[in-house]
Amino acid sequence: MPHEFSVDMTCEGCSNAVTRVLNKLGGVQFDIDLPNKKVCVDSEHSVDTLLETLGKTGKAVSYLGPK
């Protein structure tokens, strides 16, 4: 089930950081919506794991709910 997160991204570098941490986690498919500062992640990982992983970018992250 896809989950939607709000990530405080302001530039291409921010979205690259999100891509990097999610690819390192593995087992995820994701879509980054930079203008709206949203990331939709489809994964078997728990929401807590995804939040923790996205938090490694150093950006403010919040869970918006299932998509």
From TrEMBL:
The keyword Lipid metabolism does not apply. Belongs to the ATX1 family. It comes from the Eukaryota. Keywords: Chaperone, Copper, Copper transport, Ion transport, Metal-binding, Transport. One of its GO terms (cellular component) is cytosol. The gene is ATOX1. Binds and deliver cytosolic copper to the copper ATPase proteins. May be important in cellular antioxidant defense. InterPro entries: Copper_transport_ATOX1-like, Heavy-metal-associated_CS, HMA_dom, HMA_dom_sf. SUPFAM superfamilies: HMA, heavy metal-associated domain. Homodimer. Interacts with ATP7B. Interacts with ATP7A. Interacts (via dimer form) with SLC31A1 (via C-terminal domain); this interaction improves ATOX1 stability and controls intracellular Cu(I) levels. GO terms for molecular function: copper chaperone activity; metal ion binding. This is Copper transport protein ATOX1.
